[in-house]
Design brief:
single chain, 565 residues, alpha/beta, Gyrase A, domain 2, Rossmann fold, 3 domains, 3-stranded antiparallel β-sheet, globular, RNA-binding
Length: 565
RNA sequence: GCCCCCGUAGUUCAACGGAUAGAGCGACUGCCUUCUAAGCAGUAGGUUGAAGGUUCGAUUCCUUCCGGGGGCACCA
């Protein structure tokens, strides 16, 4: 916290006799700048002191010691407003960013508190659709955010590489599969087979039974099925890694469902010991009536396991292996009930850490008003979206900046940034209706807008081409926009913290839009590099630290910040 | 039927329980012989789904209702 705010809190602590923590909780930022930088609402004191809040505000003003010169204060109705000494304030904030550089906003509060993030988690033998991007980019951003706060973070890609769907695929592949077709484009072909299975199964109901039987055999380790499964898994994983490469994403573990299938014995044993299971309709379940939840299925009547069983095993394995502080599941809202059941069962098993398992849910990605679903074949390939976006950037560069160096690299960074930002710029739980004309609009609130602002900041530094110093005349940068910018810069660490607490990358996205907006207004209204060397030097310090924060913020979203575009 | 999420400008979205609810897009209007116009500024656009309640104060919290979406036994 900046020392000026600390001083105000101390003064309020003395004048109100409230605890420092209480003052800090009540102290707020006024909605309009003419009302000052901080405001203390006197309503709560009004009751205890039996006086109207506006009278209290005046009394507090009279009691406040402003001899330090750090701030002035005035009553405005029921509020005591504080006005910081602008140049002093700008100095403290800018110097802090300047000293900390890319570590500004970083923290050590997360040290030793491991966070597991389960995200992306696509299904094997299916192409990577745009629907999966939401989990991927939210998870990736949370990884970057928690890392910044000092947490050890484990990125887990919980591959959907097990389950009845592979029974379906095995049936379909044996029935209709042609090796030469498979070779051409394995993943797409497997996906075709999968959708064909669903079409044919509508009229041929025995197919579903066959699929269940094949999966059961696979689970029992039958040779041919295992061999085929391995083949499908490997080819898909390579395909996914190619996509992650494009996005610049890596994982620490690809331990998917199949991996945990071999670890379910412990789960069954613990459930047994705690006498939690019962047989219902031939299946093994944990009854959760008491908690107003439907029964949690552990084993099907044919003895095969379920997704839920494997998730229980995964949770326990992760706890044992990583001793996590929090275990996050970045998975769509549709699976909310599933996680409620899993976490409740873990709790009933006596695992107090069940409360540290968190379902970071998010709404649907829709395209042309329809929910995207690999099962129905309504799918928009991520790669197609990225390709289109990058192509559009190429065209814009050709038109606006044909002499740009490294065109292709920039086109990739901006094209991908546009798509990623579109997915991170809204609150998680809202459904996202994918519209080409919105995702590929690079004006206004968009990734390219932020990147463009960043490039501008870099361009200024190139033009200035002298070292930036923090020893400047801060009187020269105490104007309106400069002050607004500084305030936003001060908010960055708090913003990162909020984003982490709420598992909401969008909070950072929103913040960056504001930061870029204020900077662009400033840029428009105030000429930065002028004959006045003292003023230029001071303004360049502001430019420099703004660029650092914008770049760091973009990095936290997993978006590259090119220096030219 | 039960449970969860969402409902704010034409539209897409913001707004630690605080003072006059803000942006982008779209529409209209200005600003490039000066640091990147992927920019900036202006105009128009609102009964925050409805009604109650808690509070000094509610878009925010609680209750009920309405509308949209999702989930609810052998899929994941």
């Amino acid at each position: 916290m900046n020392p000026l705010k600390t001083e105000i809190i101390k003064q309020l602590h003395l004048s109100t006799a409230l605890s420092v923590a209480e003052v800090e909780r009540l102290l707020e930022v006024p909605p309009r700048e003419e009302l000052g930088d901080y405001a203390f609402p006197c309503f709560t004191l009004s009751k205890a002191w039996r006086k109207p809040p506006n009278v209290i505000a005046q009394e507090l003003v009279a009691k406040t010691d402003t001899t330090s010169g750090a701030f002035s204060t005035a009553a405005a109705g029921p509020y005591q407003n504080f006005y910081l000494s602008k140049s002093k304030y700008v100095e403290t904030v800018l110097k802090e960013v300047f000293i900390k550089q890319h570590d500004y906003g970083s923290n050590t509060s997360g040290q030793g508190k491991t966070i597991i993030i389960d995200y992306s988690s696509p299904n094997i033998a299916k192409p990577f659709g745009i629907g999966h991007l939401r989990s991927t980019v939210i998870g990736q951003s949370l990884y970057l955010i928690f890392k910044k706060l000092g947490h050890p973070v484990v990125r887990v890609n919980h591959l959907g590489d097990w389950g009845t769907q592979f029974g379906k695929l095995l049936v379909a592949y044996r029935k209709w599969g042609k090796e030469e077709e498979y070779q051409k484009n394995p993943v797409n072909y497997l996906y075709e087979l999968y959708t064909r299975f669903h079409q044919e199964a509508e009229s041929a109901t025995q197919l579903e039974d066959q699929a269940r039987e094949e999966f059961r055999k696979l689970e029992l380790g039958e040779k041919e099925n295992t061999k085929l499964w391995r083949k499908f898994r490997e080819i898909s994983l390579n395909e996914f890694k190619r996509i992650y490469d494009i996005l610049g994403i890596e994982f620490d573990s690809y331990a998917g469902e199949a991996f945990y299938d071999s670890k379910i014995e412990v789960v069954l044993k613990e459930l047994e010991e705690n006498k939690l299971t019962e047989v219902s309709q031939e299946a093994l379940v944990v009854n959760l009536d008491k908690f107003n939840l439907p029964p949690c299925l552990i084993k099907k009547k044919d003895e095969a396991t379920l997704y839920t069983t494997r998730d229980l095993a995964a949770a326990m394995y992760r706890r044992q292996t990583y001793d996590f502080h929090k275990s996050l599941y970045v998975v769509g809202s549709a699976q909310q009930l599933h996680f409620q059941q899993v976490f409740k069962v873990l709790e009933l098993m006596g695992h107090a850490w069940a409360k540290d398992c968190i379902h970071v849910d998010f709404g649907w990605v829709k395209f042309e008003e329809q929910i995207l679903s690999t099962r129905s074949g309504h799918i928009l390939l991520l790669e197609d979206v990225l390709r289109r976006s990058i192509q559009l950037v190429r065209e814009i560069i050709a038109e606006k900046n044909p002499d740009l160096e490294e065109k292709e690299k920039v086109a990739n960074q901006v094209g991908i940034g546009a798509v990623v930002f579109a997915f991170l710029s809204r609150r998680r739980q809202k459904d996202f209706d994918f519209k080409w004309e919105e995702v590929l609009n690079f004006e206004g609130e968009s990734g390219p807008y932020l990147q463009y602002s960043h490039a501008r900041l870099c361009s200024l530094q190139r033009k200035y081409s002298r070292p930036i110093s923090s020893e400047v005349d801060f009187q020269k940068i105490a104007g309106r926009e400069e002050y607004q910018l500084t305030k936003l810069l001060e908010n960055f660490p708090e913003t990162v913290k909020n984003a982490a607490e709420q598992y909401e990358p969008h909070i950072i996205a929103n913040y960056l839009l504001k930061l870029a907006g204020v900077f662009n207004t400033y840029y428009q209204n105030v000429r930065i590099i002028t004959e006045d060397e003292t003023a230029t030097k001071a303004k360049m310090l502001l430019v420099y630290v703004t660029q650092i924060v914008l770049r760091e913020g973009l990095n936290l979203l997993g978006i590259k910040a090119p220096e030219k575009m």
